[in-house]
């Protein structure tokens, strides 16, 4: 479950948020006071960010040919 804070509340509770993120492995969302979720920020532990970043980089790598045989390129008899 993600905890949500307004920017002002997040500013007041920054040390508590860092504790929640780093020691309790919680994810924190800071949502603007206008409620525009598209402009929210997510705070996660650096170790969690590194895992997510590595997964994204892996997902963006081209898929290697795993023995695929293109029948159109075979010269037949």
Largest sheet: 3 strands, mixed
Please state roughly what percent of the residues sit in beta strands, choosing from under 5%, 5-15%, 15-25%, 25-35%, 35-45% or over 45%.
5-15%
| Rounded radius of gyration (Å) | 22 Å
* Secondary-structure element order, N to C: EHHEEH
Helical amount: 25-40%
Could you name the ranges where pLDDT drops below 50 across 5 or more consecutive residues?
none
Number of helices: 3
* Overall spatial form: elongated
The main sheet orders its strands as: 1-2-3
Lay out the secondary structure.
Elements: E1 2-5, H1 7-12, H2 14-22, E2 27-30, E3 41-43, H3 46-60
Parallel strand pairs: 1-2
Antiparallel strand pairs: 2-3
